[in-house]
Design brief:
By secondary structure, the chain is mainly α. It has 18 helices and no strands. The protein folds into 2 domains: about 35-115, no CATH class; about 140-345, Farnesyl Diphosphate Synthase. It has helices spanning about 5-15, 15-20, 20-25, 30-55, 60-75, 80-85, 95-105, 105-110, 115-140, 150-175, 175-180, 180-200, 205-210, 215-220, 235-265, 270-290, 305-320, 320-330. The longest helix is centred in the last third of the chain and has 27 residues, at about 235-265.
């Protein structure tokens, strides 16, 4: 028997549209029993992201705040104290909705209806994300990341860990899903990387305004492009070719995302819709990027309201039919380049990743009581 929703859970239902329109769209598609843990996990990751992105915090203060936040999620530190300390340090760059989310950190933390395995899985995800994300933010610059495998690692920490978490939550929800755990786990990180790479490509210019570039130097160097000197006013065919190569990699990961989704039993239509809507919007975004490589603002390649509506309608009609979903994907992805299998190896966690200990011992500090 389901427990009645608490005021904290009602808050979690209310806040997503203000911090993420895409998650606000997809989370309600999930079975009722999955909405609270998935929403809880998303909001906690969003708080971590808000802390990490705050330019007013020094590197040392950011690390300390993330460590304290991990302790909050583990139940070892008071969420009210952390929120009290962080809120005055947030600059105008932090949106009012994100500021409100941080101020309500305690309400997100004390969600009562989470099962123990769900809580532990969320803790592992937040721990890994906070540690890995901070490693990359410390070296963020307009020079980009050195190699493609550095981009893979970055995507793992900011998205792949979420793919692993969702797999754990889905398998814990239904035995029919758990029976396919091994295959799902083999695709979960790639699924998440496809979505994350799409966002990285869409947000190239917005990230550069913030002093960051997550593109791999080794790809653009082959085309004679110095990422540190990249200018929206000097885009050419070489830039388009390099960008297209990365579109092909993201496209290949999204094909893995579809394979992941089709492993979910057809009777779990809500989980399938949750995945399919995200995949469909990512594919359409890649098509816009491929067609308009000279875009200078992510809004120029954003999927239109009509595209969003059609994605929802067509995937909902086809949700229980694997063949129709494959055809729909091929139609949506028509014209997109595709990376070779050698270019996109089977995604897996970085070698140094250790579940539950992303903030390495040498980086940890004793967290004060107040």
């Amino acid at each position: 028997m389901m427990k009645p929703a608490t005021s904290d859970e009602l808050y979690q239902d209310r806040i997503p549209p203000h911090v993420s329109r895409s998650f606000a769209l997809t989370i309600p598609q999930l079975p009722t029993e999955l909405r609270t843990p998935v929403s809880n996990a998303y909001l906690l990751c969003r708080i971590a992201d808000t802390i990490e992105d705050e330019s007013a915090l020094s590197v040392e203060d950011t690390l300390m705040s993330l460590q304290r936040f991990v302790s909050v999620v583990r139940g070892c530190y008071d969420a009210r104290l952390l929120a009290r300390d962080i809120l005055p340090q947030l600059s105008r760059r932090t949106s009012p909705a994100e500021r409100e989310l941080v101020s309500n950190m305690e309400r997100v933390i004390r969600t009562a209806s989470l099962q123990e395995f769900q809580r532990r899985a969320i803790e592992r995800c937040v721990d890994a994300m906070c540690g890995g994300m901070h490693q990359f933010q410390r070296i963020a610059s307009l020079h980009g990341l050195p190699r493609m495998k550095d981009l893979d690692q970055y995507c793992y920490y900011v998205a792949g860990v979420v793919g692993e978490l969702l797999t754990e939550l889905f398998c814990g929800y239904a035995e029919t899903v758990a029976q396919r755990r091994s295959a799902l786990e083999g695709l979960a990180v790639s699924f998440a990387q496809g979505l994350q790479m799409t966002n990285i490509l869409k947000d190239i210019w917005e990230d550069r305004v913030q002093g960051a570039c997550w593109l791999p130097q080794e790809v653009f160097t082959r085309y004679g492009i110095d990422l540190a000197r990249l200018s929206a006013r000097e885009l050419d065919a070489q830039f388009a070719a390099a960008l297209s190569e990365l579109v092909g990699v993201a496209h290949t990961h999204l094909r893995n995302a579809l394979s992941f989704t089709l492993l979910i039993p057809a009777e779990e239509a809500g989980i399938r819709r949750f995945c399919l809507w995200a995949i469909g919007l990512a594919v359409l975004t890649l098509r816009n990027i491929e067609r308009s490589p000279g875009f200078t603002d992510g809004r120029q390649v954003k999927v239109s309201h009509t595209g969003v509506a059609m994605t929802r309608i067509l995937t909902s009609i086809s949700v229980r039919h694997d063949g129709m979903l494959r055809q729909l994907f091929e139609w949506a992805a028509r014209g997109l380049p595709l990376a070779s299998a050698a270019t996109v190896p089977r995604a897996s966690p970085p070698p140094q990743h250790n579940r539950g200990d992303a903030l390495a011992p040498q980086a940890r500090r004793v967290i004060p009581d107040a």
